[in-house]
Structures are given as structure tokens and as C-alpha cells.
């Protein structure tokens, strides 16, 4: 019986490993639709000193065939990236298909925006465009087959290089989490301090109001000769 069950167990183990590998990847692939002058932005949490690579391609809607077809080479896509402080990290015009790269220098939420500034969309597809976007962050942005061929690395050396890059990326993620925790702690302390001072101010105002009312009533009764 053990020999009969070994095959399914191995197959199940391979499926689990494949699922874990897919979940662990740093690639984020998606597609979306935009109009002729519409801008679409995405927020990506990125640690500092981390390389990000984005690949995109566009398709136009064909009304006659009712399908999305590859865009013409004349279509232009503008890519703009801003760091958490609002500073422009990347602002460049690309074609209908392209690849953009930037390195973060400030940890936090980076804004990645894409829009088409071409007026030819209205002539071809009434302004309907599909954009396929794939974003890779950290060590997942490295092309390890190319690195192995360039540096003439063996399989073991390449695996060691990958592990070192993963450890470095994990360290950056941990530093970023500590940075977020520090910011959250400072915000909480500032909020608690403001609440405390507001409570003290309310108490002082109530006491002063009570004293003023007592003096006013005393003056009123003395004026009426009631006391």
C-alpha cells in the first residue's frame, strides 16, 4: 500500500512546491483599460535602494472584429513615477510597448502612472485601449540567466547569488517594516499628546467658566440686595 501511495504523494508535493513558488514571485501582472487622455495610477510599497522593472504592452479595440489587436508603433505611452515625498523619479515617453526601470531612494508608497498622449487612438478605436502591465520588484527584477551567461557562473554559484539577493531583499523589507513601525509610533504618540492637551484645555475652560458664573451670580444677587 505504501508503494501505491508514493506516486500521488510525490505529485501532490510537486504541486504544493509549484504553488509556493508562484506565490513567492515578486512579479505583479495585470491589465486595464484607459481612454485617450485618461491616466491610470498604481501605488506600490517599495523599500529604499530597491530596483523596480516594469514591462507593458498595449492593444487597441477593433470595432469591426470586436477584439483587441496589437497597437500601432506610432502610439505613445507616458510613464511617470513619484516617490513618497512627491518627487518625480521617472518621467519619460515610450512607445506602444516598452520597459521602464527605476531605483527607489526613499522607502514608502511610490505612485506609478501611465497615460497615452497620442490622438491617433480616436481614429483607430474610439479611444479604447488595453494595457498589460508587469511590475517586478527587488531580486525578482534580476535576469539571472543573463547574469550567469555574463559572469560565467555555474549552477551552484548562480543559486548562491540568488540566495544572497533574496537575503538582501529580506533585510530591506525588514528595515522598511521597522521604518513603518517607527512612523506609526510617532504618529500615535503625537495623537495621544494632542488628546491629552485637549482634555486639559477642556477642564481648564470648564473651571474658568464655573468661576465666572459664580462671580456673575454673586454680583447679580448683591445688586438685587438678595444677599
Automatic annotation (TrEMBL):
> Which gene holds the coding sequence for this protein?
TMED4
Is this entry keyworded Cell membrane?
no
For this chain, the family text in UniProt reads: Belongs to the EMP24/GP25L family.
Its source organism is Chlorocebus sabaeus (Green monkey)
Its domain of life? Eukaryota
Q: Which residues cross the membrane?
A: 195-214
Question: What compartments host this protein?
Answer: Endoplasmic reticulum membrane; Membrane
Protein name, per record:
Transmembrane p24 trafficking protein 4
> What are the record's GO terms for cellular component?
endoplasmic reticulum membrane; endoplasmic reticulum-Golgi intermediate compartment
Domain GOLD as annotated: residue spans: 39-137
Q: Which keywords fit this entry according to its UniProt record?
A: Endoplasmic reticulum, Membrane, Signal, Transmembrane, Transmembrane helix
Q: Where is the signal peptide?
A: 1-29
Bilayer topology term:
Single-pass type I membrane protein
Q: What is the lineage of its organism?
A: Eukaryota, Metazoa, Chordata, Craniata, Vertebrata
Q: Which InterPro entries match?
A: Emp24-like (IPR015720), GOLD_dom (IPR009038)
Amino acid at each position: 500500500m505504501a508503494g501505491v501511495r508514493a506516486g500521488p504523494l510525490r505529485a501532490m508535493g510537486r504541486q504544493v512546491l509549484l504553488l509556493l513558488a508562484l506565490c513567492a514571485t515578486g512579479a505583479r501582472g495585470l491589465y486595464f483599460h484607459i481612454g485617450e487622455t485618461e491616466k491610470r495610477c498604481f501605488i506600490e510599497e517599495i523599500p529604499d535602494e530597491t530596483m523596480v522593472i516594469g514591462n507593458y504592452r498595449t492593444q487597441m479595440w477593433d470595432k469591426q472584429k470586436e477584439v483587441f489587436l496589437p497597437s500601432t508603433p506610432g502610439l505613445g505611452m507616458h510613464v511617470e513615477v513619484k516617490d513618497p515625498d512627491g518627487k518625480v523619479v521617472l518621467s519619460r515617453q515610450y512607445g506602444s510597448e516598452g520597459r521602464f526601470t527605476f531605483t527607489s531612494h526613499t522607502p514608502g508608497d511610490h505612485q506609478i502612472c501611465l497615460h497615452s498622449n497620442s490622438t491617433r487612438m480616436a481614429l483607430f478605436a474610439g479611444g479604447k485601449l488595453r494595457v498589460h502591465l508587469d511590475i517586478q520588484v527587488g531580486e525578482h527584477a534580476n535576469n539571472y540567466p543573463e547574469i550567469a551567461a555574463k559572469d560565467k557562473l555555474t549552477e551552484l554559484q548562480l543559486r548562491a547569488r540568488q540566495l544572497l539577493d533574496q537575503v538582501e531583499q529580506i533585510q530591506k523589507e525588514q528595515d522598511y517594516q521597522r521604518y513603518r513601525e517607527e512612523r506609526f509610533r510617532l504618529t500615535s504618540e503625537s495623537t495621544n499628546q494632542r488628546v491629552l492637551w485637549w482634555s486639559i484645555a477642556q477642564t481648564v475652560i470648564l473651571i474658568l467658566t464655573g468661576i465666572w458664573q459664580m462671580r456673575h451670580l454673586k454680583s447679580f444677587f448683591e445688586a438685587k440686595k438678595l444677599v
